Amino acid sequence: MEPRLQAADLGFFSALAMAGSLSAAARELSITTAAVSKRLSHMESRLGVPLVNRTTRRMSLTVEGETMLRHARSILAEMADLEQQLGASRSTPSGLLRINATLGFGRSHIGPLISRFVRQYPQVDAQLQLSVDPPSLSDDAFDVCIRFGPPPDTRVIARKIADNQRLLCASPAYLQAHGEPKTPADLTRHNFISIRQGGEAYGVVKLTRGKQGPTETIKTRGNLTTNDGSIAVQWALDGHGLLLRAEWDIRQHLATGQLVQVLPQHHTPDADIYAVYPAQHKSAARVRAFVDFVAEAFRPARP
């Protein structure tokens, strides 16, 4: 009698859920969309419950599908760790490594780092998913998340890999046309380019005089808003207004003079970069090696 659930089903269903659609899963698995649909239907028939709600444009998991996905990811992670621990050398990174990072930072920094990492550790299968907001750290969907600021969940391990601060800036053309702000209160009279990301207060800037001085909260206004940092930087380069952006994203433009820092004597809340991973993955060589690799890449250059 054929078992209701097979080991191969776990990897298939996890890949399907990660892909988000039958056609995307087909490309990921290098099979046809019809084959994905047939295999999913066969799984559901054997289990006796629907796992996926299908429409012409998208799919979503049923309650049973969510349960299946949660356990599948946990079992797959445990299997990868067991395989690694039973291998000839536990110190050799291998197996599936699931990584999450924010859109802009992941695209410009983490993606290239992964390229170098898998060249050094070819036995690692890396999956990178970029998202606007940090994912939940409790559903075990990722092995390592690269995020800004320490996570609120103390049940995970957070390693600081780089200092990072947000800077106020604008193009020389904008400042020449509208004047340069001299105090935080002056920001209310300027056009502000806003970025909607995460749970941060929209259109609100907090500035502290020096490191220990008083903090002022400024409500800004502006006619341009986006959830993509790269677009916001381009708008600032085009001279549309002031922008508050992470130093890593505008450092090159500041160095070339395309952007100018505004109110440099004031500081915004730190946005240091962390590598975050579940405590149960700390013994996995692939996780340790990747976090060490990223931390070394961001280490300040030594004289």
Describe how the helices and strands are arranged.
Elements lengths: L6 H13 L2 H8 L3 H15 L4 E3 L4 E3 L1 H24 L8 E8 H18 L3 E8 L12 E5 L7 E7 L3 E5 L1 H7 L12 E5 L8 E6 L5 E5 L1 E6 L2 H9 L4 E5 H10 L3 E2 L4 E2 L5 E6 L6 H13 L6
Parallel strand pairs: 3-4, 3-5, 8-11, 8-12
Antiparallel strand pairs: 1-2, 5-15, 6-15, 7-12, 7-13, 9-10, 9-14
Helix pairs in contact: 1-2, 1-4, 2-3, 5-9
User: Order of strands across the biggest sheet?
Assistant: 4-3-5-15-6
Strand content: 25-35%
What is the residue-averaged pLDDT? 85
The low-confidence parts are none
Rg from alpha-carbon coordinates: 23 Å
Class from helix and strand fractions: alpha/beta
- General form: elongated
Can you put this structure into words, describing what you see?
By secondary structure, this protein is an alpha/beta fold. The protein is built from nine helices and 15 strands. The chain has helices at residues 7-19, 22-29, 33-47, 63-86, 103-120, 172-178, 229-237, 247-256, 285-297; strands at residues 52-54, 59-61, 95-102, 124-131, 144-148, 156-162, 166-170, 191-195, 204-209, 215-219, 221-226, 242-246, 260-261, 266-267, 273-278. Strands 4-3-5-15-6 form a five-stranded mixed beta sheet. A five-stranded mixed beta sheet has the order 11-8-12-7-13. Helix 5 links the parallel strand 3 (95-102) and strand 4 (124-131). Helix 2 (22-29) packs across helix 3 (33-47). The longest helix is centred in the first third of the chain and has 24 residues, at 63-86. The radius of gyration is 23 Å and the shape is elongated. The termini are far apart. The relative contact order is 0.14. The model has no long low-confidence stretch (mean pLDDT 85).
